[in-house]
Specification:
The chain is of the alpha+beta class and 349 residues long. Helices cover 30% and strands 20% of the residues.
């Protein structure tokens, strides 16, 4: 009954494709400053027409062929958009995404607005059976602090491009924009897809919270503090940027109020601001998960078999093993990583 720990989430292309199923394939064209002549292939372009004969043999680079084999996909059935008629990695992702059962609820269908009563915004799951036995064993084995930690390296190049465009957008004039903003949105998006990470443990129940008060760990003159943004799921990207700036400024000035520090449901710690690549953060009391955001730096990265410089970061997550098993923790981290790799997914929120 040991927990999943250490390095190497290494989310496969197949898993990323499945998790991207709800992402907007055309959303990237709506990014600020993106040229209209760079359209992404639409979902309709990747539906197989039964009357068309399969195209054999299919052209594709070895990494794409291996990914297709791992995913159980016949490359001859995947419409190709490569310059020489080859199936690209994006073609494979789009094909896999459109082949999935899109039964998962949209993020906006998960959140319950603040106008509802407090009881309507918390889902209660009785703790019993295997879950209760597992929780007891995890607490005992980890000295009553059953953390499971997961790490994933992320190509954040498109996040850096997105941040650059936002900085020059008239809509964000005068607002400080950093990659932390994209991570915060990614965490909100991924939480709606994996609700149990946004929960709390009691001896008799797991309380899944259908709202997110997003905590941001901040170093202050009085020591580490974790003020949180109330109902962060309701904020637009611009509103979240303003809230993040206000929260961190107030905390660093030592002016955070007691109410700012209570009621948190999920926390981000931006250790990258201190030049740290990654870490194993301790979960904030009363929560089930925390994400550590490491520094973003240029590193060699393999893309379609070629080594090129990309902006890379490492995300570290710690999770309460009484509530979350390794596979659910991994799915959550893979979702966060997917948005950091393709922030256009946020436009579909």
């Amino acid at each position: 009954m040991g927990g999943l720990g250490g390095n190497g989430l290494g989310a496969s292309l197949a898993e990323r494709a499945r998790r991207l199923a709800e992402g907007g394939r055309d959303a990237l064209n709506r990014l600020p400053g993106r040229a209209a002549e760079e359209p992404m292939p639409s979902a309709a372009a990747h539906r197989t027409v039964p009357s068309e004969p399969p195209r054999r043999p299919a052209l594709a680079k070895p990494p794409v062929r291996k990914a297709a084999k791992d995913m159980g996909i016949d490359l001859a059935q995947v419409p190709a958009t490569g310059s020489q008629g080859q199936v690209t990695q994006r073609d494979l992702i789009n094909y896999a995404a459109n082949s999935q059962d899109l039964g998962e609820a949209k993020a906006q269908d998960f959140w319950v607005p603040a106008s509802h009563g407090a009881g309507d915004r918390i889902e209660r799951i009785p703790v019993k059976g295997v879950r209760k036995a597992t929780a007891k064993a995890m607490v005992k084995s980890a000295f009553e602090a059953p953390h499971v930690s997961i790490f994933v390296d992320v190509d954040a190049s498109r996040t850096m491009e997105f941040v650059k465009r936002l900085k020059t957008s008239p809509s964000f004039e005068g607002i400080k924009i950093t990659p932390l903003l994209i991570l915060a949105k990614a965490v909100i998006w991924a939480t709606a897809r994996n609700p149990q990470v946004n929960s709390a443990w009691t001896e008799s129940e797991i309380l899944i919270k259908r709202y997110i008060n997003l905590g941001i760990a901040a170093a202050t003159p009085r020591g580490l503090m974790v003020p949180n943004i109330k109902d962060a799921q309701d904020l637009s990207l611009k509103e979240l940027a303003i809230a993040l700036n206000s929260l961190t400024k107030t905390a660093r000035e030592g002016k955070s109020q007691p109410g700012d520090m209570t009621g948190g449901t999920m926390t981000i710690t931006n250790i990258g601001a201190l030049g740290i690549d990654t870490g194993t953060p301790i979960i904030n009391p009363g929560e089930a998960a925390i994400v550590a955001f490491g520094t973003i730096k240029q590193k060699p990265w393999v893309v379609d078999g070629e080594v090129i410089p990309r902006w890379v970061t490492t995300l570290g997550g710690s999770f309460d093993h009484r509530i979350l098993d390794g596979d659910l923790s991994a799915r959550f981290m893979a979702d966060v990583a997917a948005v950091m790799e393709e922030p256009a997914l946020l436009l579909d929120m």
